[in-house]
Amino acid sequence: MVKLLDTDIMTREVLEWEGVHLFHFHGSSCSQKTRICFNLSHIDYTPHVVDLFKGENYTEYYLGINPRGLVPTLVYNGEVHIESNDIILFADENISNFKLVPQDSKVEMRSRLEAEDDLHLDLRTITMRFTQPRGDKIRSDENLQNYQEFGSGTVEGILDINRDRELNFWRKANDGGISDEAVKLSANKFKAELDQMDTHLKDNSYLLHDSLSVIDVAWVIYINRLIFCGYPLERLHPNVAKWFWPLRKKKEFDSELTVSPALQEAVNQNHRHQIETCSTLIDVANL
Ligand SMILES: N[C@@H](CCC(=O)N[C@@H](CS)C(=O)NCC(=O)O)C(=O)O
């Protein structure tokens, strides 16, 4: 569980906050996962929007709360928790009355969620190239400079290496864009994972046990994003598609995943251009 220490937190006002506060962004996959778990668990929270499109995660204020500059962040009675999977597991254990983590599978759940988190930069790689056009510099120099300077730079009292990993990702993407090689590598990691899932879902209704759990939510989010990027789910993984759609349509999911008509149109336009130039996700990753 990543609960920040007092010395990690520079925006001190949050230490006084009562109740459940969630810093999030509508289109962020980790925020979507957290909000959907909160919806399913009937956890009421005060939302605080951090607009990633405007670089609000790189402000002194937000980096003072989350030194990694990532969403989501949970503030619970003055405690600051980061990392979406940790937030969800913490909330399931300490806040919710409707459990999404079966009692007898806590260890396995954690390891499945870690494997999911390991694919996060792969999801970002695909997202940056196959959603709306992102311009020459995906993250401005000014934002990256702020990212390096603001906040304590420590997590649980230790100098945090995650921020450097993030900075490297954005600098590389700014310099050379998202390469075909990177797309291929990332898309094929997902394909391998979804192939396994397809076999499992042939004889099972859910990913773990026989009821909806956090890992189902986590994968609905990833798959929803992959489809948004043009991933051919039905063709490659028909059993996953049969499991995915009924969940995706539930109101607790739909309210968090529906995008604005303007964003959808920007993505559609980008996809039309990619079809004309044979550079869709299917073309690039050879799916
Ligand atoms: N491992 C982290 C990943 C969080 C993460 O990468 N969040 C993304 C949005 S999904 C973010 O804040 N990105 C910052 C940016 O795009 O500048 C978690 O699970 O919370």
In short:
The protein is of the alpha+beta class.
Taking all residues together, what is the mean pLDDT? 96
Number of helices: 14
Report strand order across the widest sheet.
1-5-4-2-3
Q: Name the hetero compounds present.
A: glutathione
CA(first)-CA(last) distance: 37 Å
Question: Segments where pLDDT lies below 50 for 5+ residues?
Answer: none
Tell me the CATH architecture of the largest domain: Up-down Bundle
The biggest beta sheet is recorded as: 5 strands, mixed
**CATH fold topology of the largest domain:** Glutathione S-transferase Yfyf (Class Pi), Chain A, domain 2
What is the share of helical residues?
55-70%
Instruction: Write down the secondary-structure element order.
Output: EEHEHEEHHHHEEHHHHHHHH
- Write down the Rg: 19 Å
CATH class of the largest domain, named Mainly Alpha
Find the structural class using helix and strand composition: alpha+beta
Q: Tell the overall outline.
A: globular
Give a count of the beta strands, DSSP E runs of length 2 or more: 7
Features:
binds glutathione, two-stranded antiparallel ribbon, Glutaredoxin, alpha+beta, 2 domains, Glutathione S-transferase Yfyf (Class Pi), Chain A, domain 2, 14 helices, 8% strand, 287 residues, globular
Question: Secondary-structure blueprint of this entry?
Answer:
Elements: E1 2-3, E2 20-24, H1 29-40, E3 46-49, H2 60-63, E4 73-76, E5 79-82, H3 84-94, H4 106-118, H5 120-130, H6 141-149, E6 154-155, E7 158-159, H7 162-176, H8 180-203, H9 214-228, H10 233-236, H11 238-249, H12 251-257, H13 261-276, H14 281-285
Parallel strand pairs: 2-3
Antiparallel strand pairs: 1-5, 2-4, 4-5, 6-7
Bound molecules: glutathione.
